[in-house]
């Protein structure tokens, strides 16, 4: 099995590679020499390609795509031409122009994108009866202090990577859509800088959502946090249940990275994406709308 890691724009493909290297040959393309060196130091057996076209010409069985958001539509179009399974590290779009560009692509059933938390053991397999639900809430705790010092500035730029509202908010929206489905719309959003004044975006945010069924939802984003954790609370008439997702002793498993790669490898072997693009498109619409409002 040959897997192409197309781009190393965030920390995620480095994490993905630690699981993928157990399953096949890795081919990597990344234009930034420092990022590429960091990767090859950890994976010296990986084949290095000089361009995306060269990487795709190696005949991969699957592609993990992680490039800055403005580059996703064009890069994904090149991957789609190969017909192979593709995992696009989150989020696939962070602005209206990027989402419009994705909408013009013929995205097939073996394309997966979204938050790895969907596949976390604490959450995967969770089912609820929407008829019993009054409201839902997702709380995202993930510190964004690195951005305040200029690291990966494109992620913190609202018109490029979407800032905290999008890049961290995707985790909360993903979990709620996984529970209640894609018939959802944004009804309000706000963000603020409470601690990291050097940011281009915000370090805290909130979104209000409403499903077609009438269920309301809230996504809280706390980008100032000493620890990383995620929670989903489901409110019913007789009480509330909360699911907490934490890294535990094995972050790759606890946060859903291994589960995501398992899903991707199933796609490589021919299975459709376990997350229909309809859901991913709904999540991206909420995130883009929140960025526009905030």
TrEMBL record:
InterPro entries per the record?
Gfo/Idh/MocA_oxidrdct_glycsds, GFO_IDH_MocA-like_dom, NAD(P)-bd_dom_sf
Q: Which segments constitute the GFO/IDH/MocA-like oxidoreductase domain?
A: 131-239
Pfam families referenced in this protein's UniProt entry, alphabetically: GFO_IDH_MocA_C3 (PF22725)
Name by which UniProt lists this protein? Gfo/Idh/MocA family protein
Organism, as annotated: Nonomuraea helvata
